[in-house]
Amino acid sequence: MAGIAEKVASLSNEEILRYSRHLIMPEVGMEGQLKLKQARVLCIGAGGLGSPLALYLGAAGVGTLGIVDFDVVDFTNLQRQVIHGTSDVGRKKLDSAADTLREINPNIEIRKFETRLSSANALELFREFDIIADGTDNFPTRYLVNDACVLTGKPNVYGSIFRFEGQASVFATKEGPCYRCLYPEPPPPGLVPSCAEGGVLGILPGLVGVIQATETIKLILGSGEPLIGRLLLVDALSMRFRELKLRKNPDCPACGTHPTVTELIDYNQFCGIRGEEAAAPTAMTDITVEELKKRLDRGDDLFVLDVREPHEYQICNLGGYLIPLNDLPKRVSELDSSKEIVVHCKMGGRSAKAADFLRQSGFAKVHNLTGGITAWAERIDPKVPKY
Amino acid sequence: MKILVPTPLRQYAGKQSTINVQAATVGEALNALTSSYPDLRRHLYSDEGKLRAFVNVYLNDEDIRYLQQDQTAVKDSDTLSIVPSIAGGSN
After folding, report:
1. Structural fold of domain A39-270
2. Which structural domain range is residue B52 located in?
């Protein structure tokens, strides 16, 4: 009996004052605020979406807030990851986020999980929470979060962004569809650009993360119309919100009537990411920034090809010839296959694809600049800005 | 009818967000689109010519998988949306 009595939550006078704007509205009230206090929400990622999500959930008084992250704050995060500040650069995102949240609301319990979410730890972790909010940035983790939510019966409050466009929904409730009902399979690697390549408007994770926070709070309160069975599309440039109907697919491998996903799988393999296997064939033709500098200094006849976008070229360049990766197939005739070509981009990802394409097109002497212009800025010329 | 092209695919559609085509069915509309912009085809269809599993097509707010797929009849006032999966959020 004592155990049960301890679990009955109540609010201190300080909390009553803090949450007064909730308490005086009938949709929340004391009952709703106590539900929030007893709720346990797990945020996957303390980045773009995780920042506004955790800030608002913490401020609203969600009693237990778990955060899974293993990353460190860097300068390029600050444009949108508003839970971190300039003085946090170099710190663990978990520590930085926890400090900010404690400053906003010392009444909540913050549970930090410094780990990469994996098939080995997801189920155990999810069981300790009521709702999972997915703010990750890659397909393997998206499918992992979805399947683990279906297997543990926890709702998946989903948000995803690209440039100035976002998606939000609530997946894996008992009656509603899951992420696999919407997208049974991930795109093959390389076909969809990542955020690091594609960029993202800083306010967009704010918009979408706050939608996720709203949905989370509605699920806890049990009020309103949650985004179950609806996919909300947000276009920040045209400022249009559209809504599409989602159906629970009876043949869904995860949540259908005869599921084939009965335990967590290898999600990297599922998403076609092969790790070292994929990297190996290109390794022999890579060139480091130090080698490139040495060879340029001694006057070697190298043709530097920049496969970034024109707006990136404007930020900084190595004086290379600019052909954006996507234009390369139709502009390949501008290149001289007898020359030795060094291809670079920002980090080395797009240039690796460009180098592969050129080799397949019959170019024999193609090198990929490892680490791209970012490595050049870090190790050769600090006057070149990093972005 | 109007076809809405999502951000990740606009680079293959002449940077346009909206493209108007004349068509009687969803299949005809997508055909008209990929005839004008051949680069889009590889992003929408697999080598076997099937719509890719990470690309959904909606007629107004309804998934064509739950209508008559490619055969679904369309009116000039309809809007077709291409909605691919996107994964960004953390970094």
Report:
1. Rossmann fold (3.40.50)
2. 2-84
**What are the residue numbers of the active site of A?**
195, 345
Looking at beta carbons, which residues of chain A come within 8 Å of B52?
A: 187
CATH of domain A276-379: 3.40.250.10
- What pLDDT, in 10s, does the model give residues B7-50? 888 889 999 999 999 999 999 999 999 999 998 988 888 888 88
- Listed by number, the residues of chain B in 2-61 with a beta carbon closer than 8 Å to a beta carbon of chain A are 6-8, 11-12, 17, 43, 52-54, 56, 58, 61
Q: What CATH number is attached to the domain comprising B53?
A: 3.10.20.30
Which residue, A312, A314, A316, is CA-closest to A325?
A312
Query: Do the chains contact at B86 and A47, CB–CB below 8 Å?
Result: no
The structural domains of chain A, with segments of one domain joined by +, span: 39-270, 276-379
All residues of chain B having their beta carbon less than 8 Å from the beta carbon of residue A163 are 7-8
pLDDT tens for B43-55 read: 888 888 888 888 8
